[in-house]
Amino acid sequence: MDITRDMTPEAYAGLVKGREKPSPLAKDCALAFLIGGGICVLGQLVQEGWLALGLGRQEAAAATSASLILLSVLLTGLNLYNKLARYGGAGTLVPITGFANAVASPAIDFRSEGLVTGMAARMFTVAGPVIVYGLIASAVYGAVLCLL
Fold it and tell me: Which domain holds residue 75?
């Protein structure tokens, strides 16, 4: 028997509110800060490593970005990034690693549907809107800058 069928939306919201566990906000914020900060520290260490190997500042920045993307996709493929995200929450949304995870994760999830209809078609389900709106915003910003 479904008791929620005859409930008003307000009554259902009250039922849900009464059953939900309180969120440990301070703990979640601290973990997100630590995990996000750790990812940023790792990025800085990787960049310092590339600089120590003799790359120039711009080349080291590009190599660092590529290294972090590779590491993020590798951890996503091994299902370790997901475990880190469950622990660190929003801290794993650091732009470059979080974006790489957002592209790789759907591709991995839908690989059984085939290369074109699975991986290629689903790869940008999460990241696609970000790319589209980012490109549009940059084009609009560029046009405004040119006019000014």
Answer: 25-147
